[in-house]
Specification:
The structure is a single chain. By secondary structure, the chain is of the alpha+beta class. Among the domains are: 98 residues, 2-Layer Sandwich (Beta-Lactamase); 33 residues, no CATH class. It is 48% helix and 25% strand. The chain is built from 7 helices and 7 strands. The chain has a 5-stranded antiparallel β-sheet with strand order 2-1-5-4-3, sandwiched between helices. The chain has a two-stranded antiparallel sheet with strand order 6-7.
């Protein structure tokens, strides 16, 4: 496949722009206004086109920007304020996330798994990733990336349930099971296997 000259030129400009940015980090030099605008557009594109929901918070914990449409589809309601978000969380989850936000303002990236109930009382599981927004060494706010892992959480629960049922069945039948993985040279035994063999 052949690339036309304009595609090659744009690709080269993108590489050059990010190389400049990387080389300027930690120095007192700044990008030109044009390059700074281009970088801002590239990063905005990342947030706007990210498959997960990206929320931007100020240092004062105010929502600066949020993808209302994605949240509406996912949760069945729109969230535009912290109070609306708080109403969907359990008190423990809210305290955990408030602490994560404050740790992010100290420069730490945090990741937490929480469960939220929708208006239709459906339980959804999310990974929330807090990332500090830094500008010239100062933390000005936080990104929050919201990833829906409900399907994975349900599969995990089913696996745990199946394992418990298998262990119960083996206890009742007074049998045990084991599995040897040749490539890993690992032996995995059921709880009842250990019980039988002491």
């Amino acid at each position: 496949m052949m690339k036309d000259k304009s595609t090659t030129k744009k690709s080269s400009k993108l590489k050059e722009l990010f190389s400049w940015r990387d080389s300027l980090q930690g120095k007192n030099e700044t990008l030109t206004s044009e390059n700074n605008d281009s970088l801002l557009n590239y990063y905005s594109s990342l947030a706007n086109n990210h498959p997960d929901i990206v929320i931007v918070f100020s240092r004062e914990c105010e929502i600066v920007t949020i993808d209302i449409e994605k949240l509406q589809v996912l949760l069945g309601q729109s969230i535009q304020t912290i109070d609306q978000l708080k109403s969907m969380l359990s008190p423990n989850s809210y305290i955990q996330l408030k602490s994560a936000f404050h740790n992010t303002l100290k420069g730490n990236t945090e990741k937490h798994e929480i469960e939220i109930k929708t208006n239709s009382n459906e339980a959804l599981t999310f990974i929330l990733t807090f990332i500090p927004i830094k500008n010239r060494g100062e933390i000005e706010g936080a990104y929050l990336i919201v990833t829906n892992i409900t399907e994975k959480a349900l599969l995990r629960q089913r696996l745990i349930s199946s394992e418990k049922h298998l262990n119960s069945a083996q206890q009742i039948a007074e049998i045990g099971s084991w599995e040897y993985l040749i490539e890993e040279d690992q032996l995995y035994c059921s709880d009842n296997f250990y019980y039988i063999f002491g």
